[in-house]
Specification:
heterotrimer; A alpha/beta (about 450); B alpha/beta (about 500); C alpha+beta (about 130); A: about 450 residues; Aspartate Aminotransferase, domain 1; Aspartate Aminotransferase, domain 2; 2 domains; seven-stranded mixed sheet; 13 helices; globular; B: about 500 residues; 3 domains; three-stranded antiparallel sheet; about 40% helix; binds pyridoxal-5'-phosphate
């Protein structure tokens, strides 16, 4: 219990209010009184509650396995300076900065975050965050629908399946149809199919992810950009591995009008799925459709530089049922973490991380090839690869797990045609020894499998 | 806040600091990128500033010092439940076995995490009288959207697709109508009665075969208990609609009264309010969605299931509305909420809301001595005062009072919400504040009101003790400057 | 600011300067004052047909949005593009630089249903 009152305080306060007991303040009709005792634990002193939750934590052995898991959440190195700063109580226990004059620090940090996202994506502006990459995609679709007045949205099958599922959840609410674009044999979006689909001029927007769910670079080419702009379809770029932004051509350079991204890779722990941090970046033309908070730079009464939440008339607290989105609480603290991460790494550090991801994933690709495992695709990739294991991916993963390795993600979970495939990620944290261990285990599992 | 003005007012952006070549060495030097990918796939430049770790530490330490959190002072922000956020919660949430657990780890290697989620869910069910909770939604607004999607699917399955109206009282939070619109529902705004409540007779007038959901909170956003809630929920149910409980005000009744017993079919919690999860300057939040038994199948995926002593994530739920987000939950926040639950137990939670109500009523009575309180009766965890009379007499508005409080080292209350009270000041002290703090706040507010009568202009110029003076919001919106630009 | 005598007014606080089958439309001084600092004006597209008293756009101030209704029916022939860069013109000069759109009226008779300056002043005083 974190309440400070002494008995004397309580009595004095009740006297002031003019009632004789706290119960008088909470009176409810008979039918609303608790009918049965609550099934909630009894209070524990802090050292015991700590022990109890620490024991639960120990039952997560998965945190200590050699891991090649990616698929939308990535383990990267996070300097301790991040948490030393981000966990400062002034940041951690602040609410949304409605009162600008006592929130200049946080507002400035968000303005810096918006800038970082713009510099990385090449876009004109970015919001203060949305829940995650998947909802960033869904909200981007809503922006495109608003901008075009069309009621259909197109998404590549190479977009993260979790993102596509969330896109569907949101679009169901609006009775918007979502159609999917097929894949090429090389694990990229079929741009010809895309061109055929948008020719109908029925689609509000089309979402592509690069690097896509299979790790492959998957941007619009020049011809597709021309087709899209002729059809009035808004190109949406999805970024699920933000480190790639330090290496690959920006989404702006390949024609994106909206970028829907996930910035977990910038120092935010994977934390069994959250909190992570989504963002939306766009062009000035779509400024008034962007969801969520925006921080702007302005002046104070004495002409000094100051920051403030702005363009609020877009938001639910003012526009209510006509707002661009219902989002209120966002992921500000994760955005702060990402901002500090980017400040610490700087240009050189971030490029080094990107280069190491490229290097380690190629080392991984070579090692598994040498172990006799086939790479499924030959398209250029960032830090994830798809391998074909000759039998059901999940069986191989189970065998690897027995050897202390989380070998990757079973693609059969979403792609029946890739039932024999595994998605593997390598980051700067992946060691040569770990790659060796995986390759060895794969060979062993292969032999065992062959024997069965 | 005692540094000389010159030092306090200058805070250069990170982009205007540093020197190329001042990079920190966190990882090995990488090779040139074109060793791995063809040039046409690579970006040209990466114009990010380079600062030493020391410079970055000083920069963000300075920014933190220019930010007001609960750890700095009293934060009576109505509707936001800014109570103390225990530090042990953060320690537990950031343990390696939680922080470094990848969401795609197989269930059998994440049993502890699943247990956290399951125990939290079961406790919520008992505390709020619901049959099940999904920990999937990321915040209150997203849970509202999820709930309305549940309702939409539920009605579709029953062949009642004509149900396209969502009723919200005029005191409702903006997310309620905004969420309804994102689900394609038409919003009907219901006028509150003179006592600030929903009148069951009024709601009956708008109910019909097109009623889908009625969204309410209890106590409502005026801090008043809707004691006729059963008449409302019965009427809506009779019309075939569903009742949604906006849990932003759950701190007023946790452990004392249950939304389930009031007849609500769906509800959310803002655990970043009620369960001490730090709000982090705007998030991340955590918005568990509770449902009555007839709606369980529709909950978002995945749902944590317990089979004997094993836990698993269940994705195979054919009637589900689908997932609301990439991964299962804002899990680190589930750890924090569970720690808070353990620290309090049932008795502690019950007491916590009682003290929250005690503190609010104490403030209400003291403040009524010098400010209008349009609903002068026992309130729950918060109440709304109004500066309307003061404005007529002196020109001083709620906004000016808010800014003057900042000068006196208090966070301002929520202002201009709910919309039905002119010049509203919505005050929520929470249970973790002591009588001394409350008294100091009352004194500050009293002094401000007295100043308004003597020297109103001084308040219209407030704040003057903060790092910047009153910020020009019109300029920000008229000439949007949303980022630093390297070319300017 | 005195309410100009030569304009016609709607109950929703818009004015119209009618000239034959053309009209210029804007919002009144009373409206701009109650909205406060106007930061953005969303106007219909040129060529659009609009109907008397229909909602045709929004006016945003820092903390509020309000619908813009047209006092008269017709085709939009011009919108005040300058308001994009300078929405404050509506606050400064609501009957001049702050004008919003020009209409080719489809039914000039509708003018009769609008208020005179005197009638409007009475309404605004309530
Ligand atoms: C009454 C009420 N409902 C809903 C919400 C929305 O919750 P969230 O900010 O978690 O999305 C809030 C919080 O701001 C609120 O105060």
């Amino acid at each position: 219990m974190y309440a400070p009152h002494t008995q004397a305080d309580i009595e004095a306060m009740l006297r002031c209010i003019g009632v004789d007991s706290i119960d008088r303040l909470l009176e409810v009709p008979q039918a609303l009184r608790l009918q049965e005792p609550l099934e909630v634990v009894s209070a524990l002193p802090e050292y015991r509650l700590r022990r109890r939750i620490e024991q639960m934590a120990k039952r997560n052995s998965g945190a200590d396995f050699v891991s090649f898991l990616g698929g939308g959440a990535y383990r990267h190195y996070a300097p301790p300076a991040i948490s030393a700063l981000a966990m400062r109580g002034e940041f951690l226990t602040a609410y949304t900065p409605y009162q600008a004059e006592v929130s200049q620090g946080y507002l400035q940090a968000i303005y810096e975050w918006q800038t970082y996202i713009c510099l990385l994506t090449g876009m004109d502006l970015a919001d203060a965050s949305v829940y995650d990459g998947a909802t960033a995609l869904a909200e981007s679709a809503i922006m495109a629908i608003g901008a075009t007045g069309r009621r259909k949205f197109l998404v590549s099958r190479a977009v993260n399946p979790n993102y596509r599922a969330v896109l569907r959840t949101y679009c169901n609410g609006l009775d918007v149809t979502v159609d999917e674009i097929t894949l090429t044999a090389d694990g990229t979006t079929d741009l010809e199919a895309l061109a055929r689909a948008v020719a109908s001029q029925e689609y509000a927007g089309v979402a592509m992810q690069s690097p896509n769910f299979f790790g492959n670079v998957d941007a619009l080419d020049a011809a597709a950009q021309v087709t899209l702009s002729a059809s009035g379809t808004v190109p949406v770029a999805v970024i699920a591995e933000a480190i790639s932004l330090a290496a690959l051509a920006t989404p702006a350079s390949w024609g994106a009008q909206i970028v829907a991204g996930e910035a977990q890779s910038f120092g935010v722990p994977v934390a069994y799925g959250g909190p992570h941090v989504g963002f939306i970046a766009t062009t000035n033309a779509h400024m008034r459709r962007i969801p969520g908070r925006l921080v702007g730079k302005t002046r104070d009464s004495a002409g000094r530089t100051a920051y403030v939440l702005t363009l609020q008339a877009r938001e639910q607290h003012i526009r209510r049922e006509r707002a661009t989105s219902n989002i209120c609480t966002n992921q500000a603290h994760c955005a702060l973490i990402a901002t500090i991460y980017l400040a610490l790494l700087g240009e050189t550090g971030l490029r080094d991380v990107a280069a190491l991801n490229l290097e380690r994933s190629r080392e991984l690709a070579t090692a598994v090839s040498n172990a006799g495992i086939k790479l499924r695709f030959s398209a250029p990739f960032f830090n994830e690869i798809v391998v074909e294991v000759g039998r059901r991916g999940r069986d191989v993963l189970a065998a690897l797990q027995e050897r202390g390795i989380l070998g990757g993600i079973d693609l059969g979970r979403w792609y029946p045609e890739y039932e024999n495939c595994i998605l593997m990620a390598a980051t700067e944290l992946t060691t040569t020894a770990e790659i060796g261990k995986l390759a060895g285990a794969l060979q062993e599992v292969g032999r065992v499998g062959a024997a069965v | 806040m005692s540094a000389p003005p010159s030092e306090r007012t200058v805070s250069p952006l990170i982009f205007d600091q540093g020197q190329r070549g001042r990079a920190n060495r966190y990882v090995e030097r990488g090779k040139a990128l074109d060793a791995f990918l063809p040039r046409n796939l690579l970006r040209d430049e990466l114009p990010l500033p380079e600062n030493t770790e020391l410079d970055v530490v000083r920069h963000y330490t300075r920014l933190s010092q220019r930010t007001f959190g609960i750890d700095v002072g009293f934060y009576p922000l109505g509707s936001c439940t800014m109570k103390y956020n225990p530090k042990v919660n953060d320690t537990l949430a950031s343990q390696h076995e939680f922080a470094d657990l990848h969401p795609f780890v197989p269930d059998e290697l994440a049993q502890g995490a699943l247990q956290v989620m399951h125990e939290l869910e079961r406790s919520f069910c008992s505390l709020f009288g619901m049959a099940a909770f999904s920990l999937n939604p990321s915040a209150g607004a997203q849970a509202e959207l999820a709930a309305l999607l549940v309702a939409k699917k539920y009605f579709r399955d029953r062949g009642e697709t004509q149900r396209d109206k969502v009723i919200v009282p005029d005191t409702a939070h903006g997310t309620n109508p905004a969420s309804a619109a994102m689900c394609g529902f038409t919003v009907i705004s219901l006028k509150s009665d003179t006592r600030g409540r929903v009148d069951p007779a009024e709601i009956r007038k708008v109910l019909g075969p097109d009623t889908a959901v009625c969204m309410m909170t209890n106590p409502n956003t005026l801090g008043l208990f809707e004691e006729r809630i059963h008449e409302v929920t019965d009427a809506v149910h009779e019309a075939g609609g569903l009742m949604y409980y906006d849990g932003a005000n759950a701190n007023a009744l946790m452990g004392n009264t249950r939304p389930g017993d009031m007849g609500f079919d769906l509800m959310h919690l803002n655990t970043h309010k009620t369960f001490t999860i730090p709000h982090g300057g705007g998030g991340a939040g955590h918005g568990p969605l509770g449902v009555a038994a007839h709606l369980i199948e529709y909950l978002p995926t995945p749902y944590v299931v317990r089979d004997g002593d094993r836990y698993r994530l269940d994705f195979d739920r054919p009637k589900s509305i689908g997932p609301m987000r990439s991964f299962w939950s804002n899990f680190a926040h589930a750890v924090r909420a569970l720690a808070y639950l353990y620290a309090n137990g049932a008795e502690g939670l019950t007491k916590a809301s009682q003290y929250a109500v005690l503190n609010a009523n104490y403030l209400r009575v003291k403040i009524a001595e010098f400010l209008e309180t349009p609903y002068p009766e026992i309130c729950r965890h918060e109440f709304v005062a109004s500066a309307q009379r003061l404005k007529k007499e002196t020109g001083v508005r709620a906004l000016d009072i808010a800014k003057a409080l900042l000068d006196r080292n208090f966070m301002a209350p929520t202002i201009y919400f709910p919309l039905i009270v002119p010049e509203a000041l919505m005050i929520e002290p929470t249970e973790t504040e002591s009588k001394e703090t409350l008294d100091a706040f009352v004194d500050a507010l009293r002094e401000i009101v007295e100043t308004a009568k003597r020297d109103p202009q001084s308040l219209m110029n407030a704040p003057v003790n903060t790092v910047v003076g009153r910020v020009d919001e019109a300029r920000a919106a008229r000439q949007p400057d949303l980022r630093w630009d390297p070319h300017v | 600011m005195a309410t100009p005598q030569d304009l016609r007014y709607s109950k929703e606080h818009e004015w119209a300067r009618v000239n034959g089958d053309g009209a210029v439309i804007g919002i009144t001084d009373y409206a701009q004052r109650s909205l406060g600092d106007i930061v953005y004006v969303e106007l219909p597209k040129v060529g659009e047909q609009i109907k008397q008293f229909g909602s045709i756009g929004v006016v945003e101030s820092v903390k509020a949005v309000s619908d813009l209704f047209t006092p008269l029916s017709g085709e939009v022939v011009e919108v005040n593009g300058a308001l994009d860069g300078d929405p404050a013109a509506v606050n400064r000069d609501p009957y001049g630089d702050g004008w919003m759109l020009k209409l080719k009226l489809s039914n000039p008779d509708e003018t009769k249903s609008l208020l005179s300056a005197e009638e409007y002043d009475k309404l605004a005083a309530e």
